[in-house]
What does this fold into?
Amino acid sequence: MKKFKKFLPFLILVVVALGILVWACLQTEGSESYNYEGYIIGIRETDEGTVLTTLNGDTQSEFVVKWNTKEKYNGEVKQLREGDCIKLSTTKRSDRNIKRFSVYSGFSMEGKIVNAEGHDTPFLLTTSATTKTYRLYSLIAAQDSASVPQTGTPVKIYYQYPINAATVSIVVDIIQPVSDIAAPLTEGELTYITSQNYTVSVP
It folds into this structure.
């Protein structure tokens, strides 16, 4: 009995170590497998945890970050932020509670859709808030998406890679109409588009 008591602390340490090892294995099992990807468009704190509103295509969803959610931040991302791209998997018992997630920097931009003659993919026409100058970007869909909005439709695009002054094309994950009503292009916008050697297609 005395010998058992002597080795009892050691046995407890072994059991605890084994428990931690099993827990770690369960946490890392399939850690690179995610069943959802989208962009965070809303974050709020509730009694059930941190609720994320996400956007994938034209579908909004809600997921909950729990106390035991496994978190992975990539690059310069150190916390959950609106606009970032998130990959996640939910628990077996809930399609709402997040088991694990991986978050990356995300980017967005607003402008008007322009469909040009001789081009199957749309363009995004933007206007600088400070200089009032125009930019025209060719939009390349990262995956098959719904029909492209008509010319003049105000939209917000979401994408994963930063752009610079030399960028002419953007690989986009989501093209989200801001309004269902397309506004006619202004004379200034049409002049700029023509100066870039494009002709607006007529529906």
